[in-house]
Amino acid sequence: MGSPAEEPPPPAPDLYRDTWVRYLGYANEVGESFRAIVPVSLVWASYGVATAYVAADAIDKGKKAASAKAVDKGRSRHAAVAVVDTFIWQALASVAIPGFTINRICAGSLYLMASLTHWPLSVRKWATTAVGLSAIPFIIKPIDRSVDFLMDSSLRKLYKTEE
């Protein structure tokens, strides 16, 4: 009997996707949830945090792609594709679509509570915030899958990626 084949060590965790840093990408959804009760400048600041996360992840993926490719003509293209692909995916899946979705969920819930309840405005606003926050975990996976499908069906057909 031979010794069992040694398995390669698992890859190091990705700072931007496998650690607490990932939650910075959800800052704007939290900001949108609180829109009814905080100054709008704080909501926009939450978009700044999420956008900084997106940019940092894209730069990180570009550096990793450049270092993984041997020095040749294709290295710059490989890195550029990684940056563009990551930035567009993250901008759609972490900022634009979830921000819009939570904004509309909160606006709709505030409207419905005004129409269907006699709760004071402050209670309706806090309830709207709770609705928005509670919706975040439910929208993430469907949005991620939809953005994957969108990019696989469009932009990613324009360039070849190495698996």
Task: Give a verbal description of the structure.
The two termini are about 35 Å apart. It is built from 5 helices and no strands. About 70% of the residues lie in helices and about 0% in strands.
- Give the overall form: elongated
Q: Helix segment count?
A: 5
Secondary structure: helix percent: over 70%
Radius of gyration in whole Å, from Cα? 20 Å
Descriptive tags:
163 residues; mainly alpha
List the helices and strands and how they pair.
Blueprint: H1 27-33, H2 40-68, H3 74-116, H4 121-153, H5 155-158
Helix pairs in contact: 1-2, 1-3, 1-4, 2-3, 3-4
Q: How would you briefly describe this protein structure?
A:
This protein has 163 residues and is an all-alpha fold.
